[in-house]
Amino acid sequence: MKILLTGSTGYIGRRLLPELVEAGHEVVCPVRDDRRFDYEDFDEKFLRSVQVIACDFLDSESLDQLPKDIDAAYYFIHSLTSNSQAFSKLEAETASNFKNYMDSTTARQIIYLGGIANDKELSVHLSSRRNVETILAESNVPLTVLRSAIIIGSGGASFEIIRDLVEKLPVMIAPKWLNSKCQPIGIYNVMEYLKGVLGNEKTLNQTFDIGGRDILTYKQMLLQFAEVRGLKRYIITVPVLTIKLSSLWLYLVTSTSYRLARNLVDSMKNEVVARDHRIEKIVPIDKLSYKQSLERTFLRINQKQVVSSWKDSFSNPDFNYSFLQQLEAPRHGCFIDQRSYPFDRAPGQVMENIWAIGGDRGWYYGNFLWKIRGLMDKLVGGVGLRRGRRSPTDLKGGDALDFWRVLYANKEEMRLLLFAEMKLPGDAWLEFRIKKSDDEYCLIQTATFRPLGLWGRLYWYLVLPFHGFIFKNMARNLISFQETNSIQGGE
Fold first, then answer.
1. Where are the beta strands (DSSP E) in 55-142?
2. Pairing status of strand 181-182 against strand 400-401
3. Among residues 126, 97, 155, 107, which one has the least CA distance to residue 306?
4. pLDDT at 308
5. Residue 2 phi, psi dihedral angles, 5° rounding
C-alpha cells in the first residue's frame, strides 16, 4: 500500500514509520521542514520506500505537491501545547485542509488517533480533538478513529511528567481530581492497534476506544510508578487546588510548559476509560498492564533507544518557526562573543563532546550557574532546563536541548547551531564549529545576542562578566573532557 503518514517526525509517527516500511508499504511523509527527518537513522534500502515532501497543512497551497494516488493516510497532527484559544482554531484549520486534500486522492481510509472523550462536559483539549473527528468524518474517504487514554512510552509527555513528579517529590500535595479514573495504554499496544486497523474493512467509518489492561486513578498511577522505580512516595489530595494553581505547580515541578500543564490538568477532570470494547475482537492483541508498560519503557531508556520525544514538538506558537530556516546566526546589530581554541586531540573526540552537551552531561562548566539560569527562566514563564534532550548522544535540527533549540547539526561539517528559547529581551544563538588551519584543528565557539530595545543592551552588559569565565572554561572543557572526567565547576 501507498500510505501518507503525517507527523512522521513526531512522537507517534516517528515510531510507526519503520514498522510500516518493514511491513512492505511505501510511505509518503509530509513534513514542515525536511531537515528534521531522520535520514541518518535509516539505510538506503529503507529510504527507497520513503518519500519526504516539505509542506504545511496550515498552508493549503503547499499541499498541491502531495501525491493523489495514495491508499490510506494516518492523521497525527496535534497542537496540544498551544494556548486554549489558539490550539482549537489551529487544529480545526489543519484538519479542514487535510480533509480537502484527502478528497482529491484515491485513498480508501483515514486513520486518526484522538483521545477518549465519553463525558458530556469535556475539557477544551478533548473538545478540540472531538471537533477534529467531526471535520475528518466529513471527508469522502472512510474514517477510522482510535481514541486512547494516556500513552505510556519513552519520550511521551504523560510518561515524562509522571516520572518528574515521582522521582523528584517524596511527598505530593495534589488536587482532588487525582482520583479521576484513567486507562493508560503502552505505546507498544498503540502501535499494534494502528497497524491492525490499516486496510481492515471492519474498522471503516468506525470509532473505537483503546486502553491497556488496567483501570487506575491518577493517584494509583503515580504510586505504581514509584513501586516500579523502587521508591516510597506519599500523596495527599486536597480540594483547594484550582486548575490554575495545579497547572502552575505542575509547570514548576516538571519539564512541561505551562500551557501543556494547563491543558493536561483541565483534561484530568474527565474520566478517560474505554467503554466500547469492539476493537478487542476486530484487532485482538495481548494488552499490557500499566506496570508492564512502564518496565518496557525503562528498558528502552536504559538501552538509549528513545526514538521520539514530545519535547521536540513545534506546535507551540511562541516558537518562531522561521528560525529553523536560519543556518547562520545574524551579525548586523548584534553583540558577539567569539572564542577560538586550538587543540591536538582527534576532532571526532571533541565533536562527540559537543554532541553530548546539555541534558545529564551538563554544560561542561558551572552547571550550578546554568541551573540557576534555568530556574530564573522557569519563574518568569520560560521553558527552563528541565526539557533535557531526546538522546544523550544524538542531535538533529529541531531537537529541544534544555532551554535551546537545535537549528543545525552536522557532524560532517563539524558544526552545531543553537537558538535560545529562554525568556530574553532579544534573541540569542550559540554555535560550535571545528575548523582545520594548516595542520591544526581549532574549536570556534560563538555566542550571538540581538538585543531588543534598551533593556536588551543592558542585559548583555549585565551578563558579560559571567561570559568571561563560563564560556572560556566551557570551550576548554569541551576540548579536554573525557568520559571518566568530572566537569569542572559542576555540582
1. 72-75, 110-115
2. unpaired
3. 155
4. 47
5. -105, 115
| Of 262, 271, 242, 266, the residue nearest 120 (C-alpha) | 271
Name the residue among 30, 8, 6, 28 with its Cα closest to residue 17: 8
Residue 214 neighbours by CB distance under 10 Å: 19
Helix (H, G, I), strand (E, B) or coil at 158: helix
Place of cell 586550538: 342
Compute CA distances 249 → 8, 77, 245, 291, 381, whole Å: 32, 28, 6, 26, 12
Q: What counts of helices (H) and strands (E) characterise the chain? A: 14, 19
212, amino acid identity: G
Pair 420, 427: CB distance under 8 Å: yes
Residues 6 or more apart whose Cβ sits within 8 Å of residue 280: none
What lies within 8 Å, CB to CB, of 376 at 6+ separation is none
| CB neighbours of residue 48 within 10 Å | 11
Amino acid at 369: L
Angstrom distance (rounded) from CA 11 to CA 80:
13
> Is 350 a residue whose pLDDT tops 90?
yes
φ, ψ of residue 27 in degrees (nearest 5): -120, 130
Give long-range contacts, CB 8 A cutoff, 24+ apart: 160-163: 160/254, 160/255, 160/256, 160/309, 160/310, 160/311, 161/250, 161/254, 161/255, 161/256, 161/264, 162/221, 162/222, 162/225, 163/225
Q: Strand 206-210 relative to strand 143-148: parallel, antiparallel, unpaired?
A: parallel
Q: What's the rounded Cα separation, in Å, for the pair 91 and 113?
A: 13
The cell 552537551 sits on which residue?
Answer: 357
* pLDDT tens track for 97-138: 999 999 999 999 999 998 887 767 666 667 777 888 999 999
With b for 16 or more beta-carbon neighbours within 10 A and e for fewer, the 90-126 pattern comes to: bbbebbbbbbebbeebebebbbbbbbbbeeeebbbbb
